[in-house]
């Protein structure tokens, strides 16, 4: 993973402007997270299969299920690209690169070997600041799901008031979508040192 950190002469808004014209190398995922450009290599197969499994369980007729969708976080120099974005089909705009965060019902991030702190700490605060109703972290390192709901606060102090942790294999109710997520087929990373999040 490469990082281009904030420059002293450029504030976060300036970095956001720079990011608009930034062209990453092929096969590299790029996000703007609070003024920092973060680039990652393509995801592992385990990661992709989990995203596909979750997407398949969300009813397509009611919900738009979008991958690689840039999200606009209001009042933040952040444009995250969640692994999966879910919103009511009636709420989706007709076009545009950036999807306003307040339209989103659920974002899903599948933890990779290099994204643990980003997914559990940085993005947790960013999505809460953007008033995303629910944030689901799926973690193949420690075989758990963390469902965060009820966003509150602003900026760096934003967080979710409710947190529910479940292990892979346990059904996970997603009341906002009216479904129960089956996690029994989610794969795990082998030989990766466990962490202590959330």
TrEMBL record:
Keyword Nuclease in record: yes
Residue ranges of every copy of the Putative restriction endonuclease domain listed in the record: 25-182
Keyword check for Hydrolase: yes
Source superkingdom: Bacteria
Annotated GO MF terms: endonuclease activity
Coiled-coil annotated residue ranges, if any: none
Record keywords, A-Z: Endonuclease, Hydrolase, Nuclease
Pfam families cross-referenced by the UniProt entry: Uma2
InterPro entries: Nuclease_put_TT1808, Restrct_endonuc-II-like, Uma2
The protein's name in its UniProt record: Uma2 family endonuclease
């Amino acid at each position: 993973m490469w990082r281009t950190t904030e420059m002293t002469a450029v504030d976060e808004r300036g970095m956001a402007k720079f990011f608009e014209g930034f062209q990453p190398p092929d096969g590299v995922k790029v996000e703007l997270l609070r003024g920092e450009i973060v680039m990652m290599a393509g995801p592992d197969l385990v990661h992709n299969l989990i995203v596909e499994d979750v997407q398949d369980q969300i009813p397509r007729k009611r919900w738009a299920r979008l991958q690689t969708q840039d999200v606009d976080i209001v009042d933040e120099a952040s444009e995250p690209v969640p692994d999966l974005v879910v919103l009511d089909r009636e709420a989706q705009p007709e076009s545009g690169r950036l999807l306003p965060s307040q339209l989103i019902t659920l974002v899903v991030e599948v933890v990779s070997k290099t994204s643990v702190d980003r997914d559990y700490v940085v993005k947790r605060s960013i999505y809460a600041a953007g008033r995303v109703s629910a944030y689901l972290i799926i973690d193949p390192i420690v075989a758990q799901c963390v469902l965060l709901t009820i966003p509150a606060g602003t900026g760096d102090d934003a967080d979710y008031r409710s947190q529910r942790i479940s292990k892979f294999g346990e059904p996970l109710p997603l009341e906002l979508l009216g479904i129960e997520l089956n996690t029994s087929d989610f794969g795990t990373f082998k030989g990766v040192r466990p962490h202590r999040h959330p």
